[in-house]
Amino acid sequence: MSPDSMTPGSVRSAAEVNERIRALWLRAGGSLSAHERAEYELLVVEWAAAIRGEVVKAA
To answer: How far apart (Å, rounded) are the C-alpha atoms in residues 54 and 41?
Structure first.
């Protein structure tokens, strides 16, 4: 997943992003390649933003 494939302001839930993170780790067998590491980092940033958004909505 390249940064260009991410839609600005993506509205995926934290749960959905977390599932993608888990799937990535399963596909990789617990050891990420450089490309997978980059994808993982993007997903973690997206997940953190989704968590913040969900906390703000709940407040």
So the answer is: 20
d(CA 54, CA 50): 6
**CA 59 to CA 10: how far, in whole Å?**
21
Distance between CA 57 and CA 6 in Å, rounded? 23
- 38, 9 Cβ separation under 8 angstroms: no
Residue 10 to residue 35: CA distance in whole angstroms: 21
What is the reported pTM? 0.75
pLDDT category at 4 given cuts 50, 70, 90 is very low
